[in-house]
Amino acid sequence: MPALDREHSTLLVVDIQGRLMPAIEDGSMVIANARRLVDAAALLKVPVLFTEQNPAGLGSTVQELTLSGPVAHKMTFDAVRSPGFLDRLPAERAIVVAGCEAHVCVLQTVLGLLAHGRQVFVVRDALGSRRTESKETAVRRMERHGAEIVTTEMVTFEWLTTCEHPRFREVVALIK
């Protein structure tokens, strides 16, 4: 897989919801890195799609993540199984995935995207689970099935492409 191209990327933020996050190991780091990705996407005009799993039970997306894109509500763990979900993600776009829980909704959604021939980049430092071994096992499994494993910094610098980009300083300020 080549480097990410902002013109052909969509950021997918999976289930970073109010009632779930207190149980997530290093949840504040997950939220902070997801925030960086959302902000970089906004600066670089990369579309963002959020999902919310059973929002009546788990609440809405955390306040720290200003919703800068549409929200797909779902009851299935694999968002791809929700009616119309895949239609929101153009086939020619690489899907950059962050969210929770790595071993449940993120894993199943990534496997669903891969099964539909989508190019998927999973942002390891913007993933959360209640337990480290669940997250790490999910990351290995997603990688084994064809997802590229990346970090927040990798994504933002690949989206920038050059230090001459007019938004370079603003995007780099998100990382520092």
TrEMBL record:
SUPFAM superfamilies on file: Isochorismatase-like hydrolases
Record Pfam families: Isochorismatase
Protein name per Swiss-Prot or TrEMBL: Isochorismatase family protein
Location of the Isochorismatase-like domain: 10-153
